Amino acid sequence: MQQRAEESRLRSDLSRDKKLATMRMLLQATRFESFLHRKFVGQKRFSLEGAESVIPLLDHLIEKAAELSLQQVVIGMSHRGRLNVLVNIFKKPLENMFAEFADNEGFQIVGEGDVKYHKGYSTRRCFSNGCVRVSLASNPSHLEAVNPVVEGKCRARQDRLEGDGEQLVMPLLIHGDAAFAGQGVVAETLNLSQLAGYKTGGTLHLVINNQIGFTTLPVDARSTCYSTDIAKMLMAPIFHVHGDDPEALIQAATMAIEFRQKFRKDVVIEVICYRRHGHNEGDEPFFTQPLMYDKIRNHPLTADIYKNQLLYEGFPETEFQSIAAEVDHNLEEALSREICPLHEEFMQQWAHVSRKFSFDPVETGVDSEVLLQLNDSLTTVPDTFTPHRKIASLLKKRHKSVAEATGIDWGTGEALAMASLANEGTSIRLSGQDSRRGTFNHRHATLYDTVTASEYTPLADIAKKAGGRFDVYNSLLSEMAVLGFDYGYAVETPDDLTIWEAQFGDFANGAQVIIDQFIASSQAKWDRPSGITMFLPHGYEGQGPEHSSARIERYLQLCGDNNMQIVNASTPAQLFHLLRRQVRTRHRCPLILFTPKALLRHPACTSTVEELTRGHFQEILPDDLDAKKCRRVLLCSGKIYYDLLQQRLAGQHNDIALIRIEQIYPLHKELLKNILKPYQKTVEYCWVQEEIANAGAWDYLRPQLRELMGREPEYVGRKRSASTAVGSNRIHKIEQQQILDRAFAPSK
After folding, report:
1. What predicted TM-score, i.e. pTM, was given to this entire model?
2. Within a 10 A sphere around the Cβ of 712, how many other Cβ atoms?
3. For residues 426 and 468, is the Cβ–Cβ distance under 8 A?
4. Burial of 383 (0-12, 13-18, 19+ CB in 10 A)
5. DSSP single-letter state for residue 304
6. Cis peptide preceding 703, ω within 30 of 0
7. Which domains can be identified in the chain, with CATH numbers?
8. Which of 252, 253, 273, 657 is a good FRET partner for 364, with 20 to 30 A between their CA atoms?
9. 613-659: pLDDT as tens digits
10. Cα angle value 69/75/76 (rounded, 5°)
11. 3-class SS at 608?
């Protein structure tokens, strides 16, 4: 860094053509904003005015990326200046942008759509030294939430490329000063940068420092001198550059991208600039910062400052007048043109995936001989490997259960599902806090030699032989950044199985922004589907309010138009078929799977090899009791089924049927209707859950069950509560027994 600084004196030596090109980019940026201001009065656009030099900076960065043999640049940014970037960097057709401002009827919107300054885009930019695919990730108003999503998208692309993916794909994140200093996900994402499961070879960060956040000044927004000080946690180089000096910005950009390519570490450019208008164009900044905005009002445009510099250097003014006239002509002409059809590369990789959900069964059984072979691979370690004696015992137990075709537990069912997919060439990524071993000591995907501490991952060997990948990572102690990363990874890998696992399902609330704004709604808002799978351990075992409920109700509230699958599977065989269905079906959407804790070792929660070799995932599991002899039907989901089953056996209640709703959304109403049809009209219907009344599936299912049954089902479960569960194990057991007693009480 010292050598580069001293050689160049931190000043670029631009050619005449480069200076003219820089001037052109400044004029395009400036006149685009003023055109929108005149033609679409009062509309929000979150203009770039005050930071127009970011446009020549970005243009130079992408050209430099081509020179350094980068193939792809993935950009994440919030709304400030986004429209300008789309038009002048991504070359999104002006006529399409104006059609969005006019809200033209002919402008096609997929799903519910989103505001124009949230949408993504992708294109290919070509220069004399090569071409670069440039992508802009869709982003909601949660400013920095897109950061880990971009990192995940980049990592997926890097993993797919042959050769050195880190040198071929670069993430570029554009931040605001207040958000970079204030949002916790920034620190979480920076922490990803050098971790094996999440690194992307360094990220180039561009901070547009407007010196204000909405109406809040730095003195009220941060406790550090610079807005970029958080990046010091990585010892990353930080360039502070005057926004009115585009040549200095170009020099900083050159050093920054070369540093990233050489050292594979993050680097930051802070553009010290300003915001000419308020937070949006309808906002009045003089209300709160009168002195600051009095100075801004009288401050010349960057384009005028740079023009005067070039005039001083001998450039003729007629050259600038000609460029300005050309830019104005292009803007006016585009206003009357028809919109242009767009063909993004992203949509091409999803072209074979159906957007329509179907209840048609997907056959996911695997031949028993194949399962036996995979079981041998999963439970055999190299001769030179010394596993822990308890792990050796576990492997023997797993091998025996498959060899004897019975007693397959949850961990074995999961391992066989992943092994069968890997054996068929499907790549799998699993990450989360302690996911290698599993929080509840059930997985042991990676084994550790007790003598050498070396690692062995049997699934990785199976995948490698089939030409795929199996990657399992213990994540940093983060929910938001890691889930955002894995969501981004899933968006780029439609044919893979990408899983994020919460340590306890309750902890996913730390990633609620990612769940709400990306996972649940990305297809409806931006036409961006994903097949992300979330493992959320769920179940009431008396461990208190933070280790009980994964908040089933929250996910159900986010459901509409078959956007997600909400599943509370109750057997290893169901898990096996479900994971295979997630990548074998033509349809892709997020799978929210509530996984068990106590059931991981419950003697009744087992499956047979035969159940894995035939059939498919069943959305609803019926009872085999004679329907005509039943006085009551208990509908339930998940772990409570085994408590009910045990109570039924103990009390000889052979007149009470137990029906499990495994897939809560989309609810297979026709199947449930057929299952209920044989029961007498006088039968009593109850919904039984261990969750509190204002949680779980009750509120969501209640109107649908009422419609199917023709009457209101009785609720059996805990009362409404502000806390998800009690903190006392003693009280938990009393409550649990009360639920069971009510479920099997004599008829009224």
Report:
1. 0.96
2. 12
3. yes
4. exposed
5. H
6. no
7. 2-340 (3.40.50.970), 368-613 (3.40.50.12470), 623-743 (3.40.50.11610)
8. 657
9. 999 999 999 999 999 999 999 999 999 999 999 999 999 999 999 99
10. 160
11. coil
